[in-house]
Amino acid sequence: MMTQLLTKPLQLATVSAVLWAIATSATQAASLTWNYAADSSSDGISTLGVSSESEMFGLAYAQDSENIYFAFNSNLSLGGTNPWGDFFLNFNYWQNPSIDSSLANGNLLAVHFDAENSSGATEGLGVYQLNPNDSLLFTADWANYDQYNQQVWQSGGQVTNITGLGIGESQNYLGAYGRSVMGSGTKLGDIQLFEQNQLTLLGLDFSGQPLGSSIFGFSFARSLLPDGNLDWIGHVMAQSGADTMGMIGQFQPGSAFPPPPNPTPSPDLDPDPQPVPEPSVLMAMVVALVGFCTRKSP
Ligand SMILES: [Ca+2]
């Protein structure tokens, strides 16, 4: 009798554990689909390479039904003494491949995500619309991209500014000096910052690139932008101009995506979780356990 009383709760606990594992597996399956772009890992002046405090290694973006996400892989910490510039999104590149002309056409957004930089954003962190009477600022330590290129090349590095564009194309687009922060803009909405562990739960994996010491990201609401397919080109510079990285992408209607997964880790999660079997295997285990319990019940 005592054995039966002990065995049944044990069986129920095992079934509960398996069901929890299925739920966990389902959450993991809700990870976002990330699109990655690798930047040169040898163009973060003044020292070059993986140990350079200014080196940027790449970026990524993802989307779900409600939000757009960006993530950065670099050695530049957020809020540090070597600030990031603002992140620019241009929806008019293919019609007019000049960032200054796109500003004049009202097709430029800027995301202010580093509170320590010298951006002209006046309403805190967030997404800003830039209008023709707004401005772009140059804050780099070097005089122009020609000087920057020479410094990288003389040190044996390779220059990439926007992945998918050649050096000439990207620097023609960015202008002779690059554009690091907005001079002014009109805030459209807030952003949410994410630490690396939160992005990992969202499926981010920069292992295809050299990993920097600083991985973080932000999201903003898809509804801040027009609906439909939106082709864009985006870039971000270190405020010092020590490195630039960017990528090309397309936002799709939010209706094309599943709802957002919950990126906030639960404090109750096992700090040393065991590997979770595939859902099909778990379901087979549940069926077997239920059958076992049924046969054993008086
Ligand atoms: Ca770089």
Q: How would you describe what is shown here?
A:
- With about 300 residues, the chain is α+β, with helices and mostly antiparallel strands.
- The chain has 2 domains: about 1-30 and about 280-295; about 30-255, no CATH class.
- The chain is built from 6 helices and 13 strands.
- The strands form 3 sheets. Strands 9-6-5-4-12-13 form a 6-stranded antiparallel β-sheet.
- The longest helix is centred in the first third of the chain and has 28 residues, at about 1-30.
- It is globular and about 50 Å long.
- Calcium ion binds next to loops.
Strand and helix layout:
Elements: H1 2-29, E1 35-38, E2 56-63, E3 67-74, E4 84-90, H2 99-104, E5 108-112, E6 126-130, E7 136-137, H3 145-154, H4 167-174, E8 181-182, E9 186-189, E10 192-195, H5 196-201, E11 214-221, E12 230-238, E13 244-251, H6 279-296
Antiparallel strand pairs: 1-2, 2-3, 3-11, 4-5, 4-12, 5-6, 6-9, 7-8, 10-11, 12-13
Helix pairs in contact: 1-6
Bound molecules: calcium ion.
Residues 39-41, 43-44, 55-56, 243, 245 line the site of calcium ion.
